[in-house]
Amino acid sequence: MHIEMIPNKYIINLVVETDRFCVSDFLLKMVRLVNNSDEQTELYELIFEVFTSNKTVKKVVYSGEAFISRIADSKERCILLPGEEVLIRNEHFSVLSGKVVDMLDIKVCYKQRGEEKSKHLFVSVVNYKTPNNYIFPVKGGGWQINGNYDCLGAHRIPAMASMEFAIDLGLLNSDSKYEWNDSMKNEDALCYGQEIIAIGDGEVVDCYNTADWRAFPSNDPKSDWVQIGKQFGQIPLHCGNYVIIKHDHNEYSLYGHMIKHSVVVEKGMSVKQGDTLGKLGNVGFSGAPHLHFHLMDGPDLFKANGLPCHFTNIIDMGGRTLSLIQEEYTIVFAR
User: Fold this and answer.
1) HSE-CB for 21 with a 13 A CA cutoff
2) pTM of the predicted protein model
3) Residue 176 has what pLDDT?
């Protein structure tokens, strides 16, 4: 039996610490179980065991009907012929403990010719902090965070792995509301046309500047979603006009949905922290004017892993300094 985690590097842990305890929050995006033997294999149990400093702090066991429902739509899928596989997706952990979680053991139990066997995969769980000093990608105050990692159904689970820690930014009015509906013009949104800036020094490794569409997922081969993707590519389809910057330590920042022809950088250019990249728009897979921003460990939106981004220049509504944004709908001010 072969166990493979996808993505296959490590799991990133988002940690909230107090004087008495800490909460570890991490997502196992995908596990692949492959029968790499010459024997028919019956899967019957899956165990996740969470550790802090080699001490077990949580164990999750799937067996019986719970195991069947976790890995497949039908009972027959518990039997794997040689070369067959099953996938386990999106196991989310929130662990209260005295110390930060640092290891996850994935154990699968199976039978071959009536003999019970098991296989382990030990995965590092890393409390990742950006080694670079970054500033917020927009200026001023009243920016509301949407789609933060604690909102599992926004970017973290349904989107590709590179967007696990993505955020969407909209600017609030004097009544602390984000005003938008489809009967409004883009220019009616306060954030529309706002300047987007580089969070740190780096090199532009990819960008796009001529998108003028809004498109939404569809399986219809005649839909705008399918046709635009075929003609212009998947990244412009999703992000509209965008910029991707490579920073030190193999971190890459992505800025999406900018106004057509507003992108002022080109591929290969060097940029400095605070340099203008373009203007906030409503292009691509976008329901309203906003900036989509995220950090990742590679330049490819569909192959990279997402990274949490820590900032050096933001405060919340109470004037408290923030680094990592940890709650959906947080309102921040860039100093």
Assistant:
1) 7
2) 0.94
3) 82
